[in-house]
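Treating backbone geometry as a discrete language has practical consequences that deserve illustration. No coordinates are needed to read the tokens, only the vocabulary itself. For completeness, the protein is quoted in full, as a sequence line and a line of structure tokens:
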Amino acid sequence: MLLLFLEYPQKVFSVENLYESVWGESFVYTSGNTVMVHIRRLRKKIEVDPQKPKLILTVWGKGYQFGE
């Protein structure tokens, strides 16, 4: 997931797009939790303050992006 973010900086990825790109499977409703857990774990590893992320940003209603 991090590699995908780094390859396409500034691009907003939907939860569905992230899941299908990383896991190579069709997205189903419950797959959204998988993406959120991995985003949280990535933030814990790379953010100075995971509660106030500056690298992996949430774009409300759209998904996630790396940087602004």
